[in-house]
Write a structure and sequence with these properties.
CATH superfamily: Response regulator
CATH class: Alpha Beta
Strand order of the largest sheet: 1-2
Number of strands: 4
Bound molecules: 4-nitrophenyl phosphate
CATH architecture: 3-Layer(aba) Sandwich
Structural class: mainly alpha
Helix content: 40-55%
Strand content: 5-15%
Largest sheet: 2 strands, parallel
Radius of gyration: 14 Å
Distance between the termini: 23 Å
Number of helices: 6
């Protein structure tokens, strides 16, 4: 799961997906990162942590890191939170196989036509709540889509 700073959207996406896969006993390797490294080492934004905790998800053990070239080898899928992250990831990818791993997360969600998970960083509390509900709904679809892909 990749966003810009890896302190708001992608840590929440990681936390929700971790929780849902544990509940459903799926074994997949999950991580998140940012396209920029300026928050590297930091915990998720306090506002994002508080919103996640309100819905039972603890993000306090996560720490921001920047995307690495190794991620393109290690992971089968790299989900971008918005089109800008998607384009940055496409530029980093070394070949067509790596480029094909990069997808827009919201393309997994048939219930809305948004392409971009809104960046809540510069806004108010309601933005964090919106991101929570959008990601929660989308990750439910992602897990169902993964199950179908496995068959
Ligand atoms: P994120 O939000 O990409 O969802 O983690 C942001 C975090 C930090 C910044 C921008 C967006 N920033 O410019 O520092």
């Amino acid at each position: 799961m990749v966003c810009l700073g890896n302190i708001c959207r992608s840590p929440l996406a990681e936390g929700i997906l971790r929780q849902k896969t544990i509940e459903n006993q799926h074994t997949i390797i999950i991580d998140s990162a940012g396209t920029i490294g300026i928050h590297a080492g930091e915990q998720p934004d306090k506002r994002m942590q508080a919103t996640a905790l309100k819905y039972g998800i603890d993000l306090s053990t996560l720490h921001s890191r920047q995307v690495t070239l190794n991620d393109f080898q290690e992971f089968d899928r790299i989900y971008a939170m918005d089109e800008s992250n998607y384009s940055d990831l496409q530029k980093l990818a070394k070949n067509e196989v790596q480029k094909a791993k990069v997808r827009l997360l919201l393309d997994e969600n048939p219930l809305n036509s948004l392409k971009n998970v809104p960046d809540p960083y510069y806004g108010g509390q309601e933005g964090f709540e919106q991101v929570y509900f959008l990601l929660e709904e989308t990750i439910n679809h992602l897990i169902n889509n993964l199950k179908h892909d496995e068959r």
